[in-house]
């Protein structure tokens, strides 16, 4: 596969075209942001850790018959992926009440949610990713009711698969964010990444933070990168670590 031109640049990843219109290359950068892009930094190694962690988790999902964008890890930081038309939704799934949920609603801190909560935010920088409901998403032509239902069903399935896999690795899946897109046949496909940037992972024994909350809370580069490295060694097979 030949890498083509950059077709999209996000806060931490770039998307490149390839010589095949069905495929793109996703490149993970070392950039890290927090607070709606207010804080920015560059931590060497982050792109590598996130690409390895995300590849592993997408492989686990593919093995469980979830349709994902992932094709293969080409090299550290670069993933060959299916070309999707992305749906501008941040689909958040929560097993434990923390983060922005506590700021908006009277949940108890770190309360275990009996039934996972799915929340959808409109991915739009200008409007600062507001929470929306089905009616708003449909009126904005972001997705149809059927697609929203599909997204919810797939997200709950992903929550089960990943919670179980991570538990075996000593990690509690507290919450996470997914993004979906449509392939050329209009199928709903999981896209983007699943990494410590987009999930809350807690050590199952100590409940210590193993994700980007370390950066949000002001830990330094060494501390944050040693956490990402730790997650990588906890979930990625040693043979895959180059
Ligand atoms: O901040 P909040 O509690 O709403 O985040 C819920 C989950 O979604 C967290 O795992 C967070 O990392 C993820 N998230 C994300 N990108 C955003 C907002 C939240 O990956 N723009």
> Would you report the number of β strands?
14
Give the ligands present. Answer: cytidine-5'-monophosphate
Mean pLDDT: 97
Uncertain regions spanning at least 5 consecutive residues? none
Could you say which overall geometry the principal axes of the C-alpha atoms support?
Answer: globular
Number of distinct helices: 6
Q: Helicity level, as a percent range?
A: 25-40%
Q: Please tell me how large the radius of gyration is.
A: 17 Å
Structural class: alpha+beta
Main sheet? 7 strands, antiparallel
- Provide the succession of SSEs: EEEEEHEEEEHEEHHEEEHH
| Ends apart, CA distance between termini | 21 Å
Into which percentage range does the β-strand content fall? 25-35%
Description of the molecule:
With 242 residues, the protein is α+β, with helices and mostly antiparallel strands. Helix content is 30%, strand content 34%. It is built from six helices and 14 strands. It has helices at 46-63, 100-104, 134-139, 145-168, 213-216, 221-235; strands at residues 3-9, 13-18, 23-28, 31-34, 39-42, 70-75, 78-82, 85-86, 89-96, 112-122, 131-132, 171-182, 188-191, 199-203. Strands 8, 9, 10, 11, 12, 13 and 14 form a seven-stranded antiparallel sheet that branches. The mean pLDDT is 97. Bound molecules: cytidine-5'-monophosphate. Residues 90, 92, 99-101, 129, 175-177, 198-200, 212 line the site of cytidine-5'-monophosphate.
In summary, what is this structure?
It contains six helices and 14 strands.
Key attributes of the depicted protein:
alpha+beta; single chain; 242 residues; ATP-binding; SAICAR_synth; 6 helices; 7-stranded antiparallel beta sheet; EC 6.3.2.6; binds cytidine-5'-monophosphate; 5-stranded antiparallel beta sheet; Phosphoribosylaminoimidazole-succinocarboxamide synthase; ATP binding
């Amino acid at each position: 596969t030949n890498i083509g031109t950059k077709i999209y640049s996000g806060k931490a990843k770039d998307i490149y075209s390839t010589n095949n219109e069905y495929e793109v290359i996703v490149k993970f950068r070392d950039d890290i942001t927090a607070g709606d892009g207010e804080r920015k930094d560059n931590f060497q190694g982050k792109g590598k850790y996130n690409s390895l962690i995300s590849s592993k988790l997408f492989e686990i999902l593919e093995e469980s018959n979830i349709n994902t964008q992932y094709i293969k890890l080409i090299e550290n930081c670069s993933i060959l992926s299916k070309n999707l038309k992305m749906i501008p939704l941040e689909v958040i799934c929560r097993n434990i009440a923390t983060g922005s949920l506590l700021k908006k609603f009277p949940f108890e801190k770190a309360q275990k949610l009996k039934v996972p909560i799915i929340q959808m935010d409109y991915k739009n920088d200008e409007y600062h990713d507001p929470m929306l409901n089905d009616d708003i998403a449909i009126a904005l032509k972001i997705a149809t009711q059927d697609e929203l239902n599909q997204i919810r069903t797939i997200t709950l399935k992903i929550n089960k698969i990943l919670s179980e896999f991570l538990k075996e690795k000593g990690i509690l899946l507290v919450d996470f964010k997914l993004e979906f897109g449509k392939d050329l046949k209009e199928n709903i496909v999981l896209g983007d990444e699943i990494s410590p940037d987009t999930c809350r992972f807690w050590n199952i024994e100590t409940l210590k933070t193993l994700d980007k909350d370390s950066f949000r809370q002001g830990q330094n580069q060494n501390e944050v990168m040693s956490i990402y490295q730790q997650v990588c060694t906890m979930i990625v097979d040693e043979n895959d670590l180059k």
